[in-house]
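Weekly structure sync, notes
Attendees: PL (lead), two postdocs, one rotation student
Agenda item 3: pending single-chain targets
PL asked that the sequence for the first pending target be pasted directly into the notes so everyone works from the same version. It is reproduced below exactly as submitted, 152 residues in total.
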Amino acid sequence: MGLVIRQASLGELEELVEWRMEVLRHVFCIPETEGLERLARANREYYQEAIPSGGHIAVFAELDGAVAGCGGLCLQREMPSPDNPDGKCVYLMNIYTREAYRRNGVGRAVVCFLARRAREWGAGKIYLETSESGRALYERLGFREMRGYMRL
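Predicted structure, written out during the meeting:
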């Protein structure tokens, strides 16, 4: 069967939320014993609004028929600027591959699929946050460090 990246639908809402909670537990080192009901509810509401409106595209990566990873992108507009004259930008998020499936090209395929979708939409800027474990993949795909950004 190989590797297939497919866009998720709102009909898969519970699976989307389950994967999002798994990603958050992994990224933020949240123990399984800690309840995430409030966060799950907020993410469920996000998907219910953002997917039908076209503000979010979520995907699943299937490797030999099993869901091995996921990813998403938020389609946004910022004020137009010289480096992004149309103001269309995309934030890649929730890029994740379960440990058993890593080193099989899953993450790369998800990012490439989403980047293609972003370019088709006309995004002049694609950005993301990364963990140290993901940095090398993103750099190989052409992402560069964004200097001059701060967070409050």
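Discussion points:
- The first strand starts at residue 3 and ends at 7.
- DSSP finds four helices and five strands in the chain.
Action: rotation student to compare against the earlier draft before next sync.
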